[in-house]
Write a structure and sequence with these properties.
Layout: H1 4-26, H2 34-40, H3 46-57, H4 61-69, E1 73-77, E2 80-84
Antiparallel strand pairs: 1-2
Domain HTH araC/xylS-type: 19-67
GO molecular function, one term: DNA-binding transcription factor activity
Protein name: HTH araC/xylS-type domain-containing protein
C-alpha cells in the first residue's frame, strides 16, 4: 500500500505532465504568446511555464515553438527532449 503523500506526488507529476503537454500543443499556434499559453494551462507567468517546460522538455517554450514551426522533429523522452533535423527529400 502506498502512503497518501506518495500518491499525491504522483498525481502532481501527472498533472504537471498533462499541463506541459497541453502547453506544447498550444505553442504550435504562431499567434499565441507564451504568457497566454501559460495562463491557459494554469501557470501564473510565462517565467513559471518556461522554468517547468525546460525542466521537463530540455528546451524553452520558444525553442520548442521554433523547432516545431521549422519542421524539425521534436522527440520527448523521460530524460529530456531531442530535436532531430528535418529530413530532406
Amino acid at each position: 500500500m502506498k502512503m497518501p503523500w506518495v500518491q499525491g506526488v504522483e498525481m502532481a507529476r501527472a498533472r504537471t505532465g498533462w499541463r506541459l503537454a497541453l502547453a506544447a500543443d498550444l505553442l504550435r499556434e504562431p499567434d499565441a504568446t507564451i504568457g497566454a499559453v501559460a495562463r491557459q494551462v494554469g501557470y501564473g507567468s510565462s517565467f513559471a511555464l518556461s522554468t517547468a517546460f525546460k525542466r521537463v522538455h530540455g528546451m524553452s517554450p520558444q525553442e520548442h515553438r521554433r523547432a516545431v514551426t521549422t519542421g524539425t522533429q521534436v522527440v520527448t523522452a523521460q530524460s529530456g527532449t531531442v530535436v532531430l533535423p528535418r529530413r530532406v527529400s
